[in-house]
Amino acid sequence: MPVKKRKLPDAGDHEHRCKLSSLSRPHIRPVKPVGAVRSFSGKRCLTWFHEYAGPGTVVGPEAMAKFCEDVGVEPENVLMLVLAWHLEAANMGFFTRDEWLRGMTVLQCDCTERLQSKLDYLRSELNDAAAFKNIYRYAFDFSRDKNQRVLDMDTAKSMLDLLLGRTWPLFPVFHRFLEQSKYKGLNKDQWYNVLEFSRTINPDLSNYDEDGAWPVLLDEFVEWRKSCSAS
After folding, report:
1. Which residues form the DCUN1 domain (predicted)?
2. 128-230 domain in CATH 1.10.238.200?
3. pLDDT tens across 173-194, in order?
4. I want to staple 165 with a disulfide (CB 3.0 to 4.6 A). Which of 46, 161, 211, 226 is the partner?
């Protein structure tokens, strides 16, 4: 059967059709994909800061309460401590403008919604041993009275509960020990060693070395615990 020959299009006809097609097609602008992430804005971040600080340069306790409400995190929640650590805040209950801009820039948060989207990340840092150690150590200077070298006992017990209460099996016992002890506060060395103790010493204290380089506070805790168990 003979093959029917197809007429090749004339070059001029093709050019003409292209012109007609382009004339009949509306001009289409590039559309930003739905859900595309916009870039961080320092200006937007500063505006966000002044929503709480007003014309001043510090977010104080009252404004901080409103900030926590907007973010959906209680002021006493450990996540606020993690956030303060990221901001390198010097004083509990206060965020300065410089602290806010520095920390929120690192976190890439310039509005409430973006910070809310980072809460799971902040929470995950509590399960990272290295990050948690830094947060724990930061908490000492962050929460102490800057006129004192020690962390007063009431604050120390509250912060230990916040940081170790959910993970250290011996914390309830240690808390009772602190309540009946002669100590009015914890110094930095004692604070640091409590974390090390919680990480390395078995709940039954079986691997505690009395000749180790532990602070006297912890020697006394072990002795008190054993005497309570024996009675």
Report:
1. 40-226
2. yes
3. 999 999 999 999 999 999 999 9
4. 161
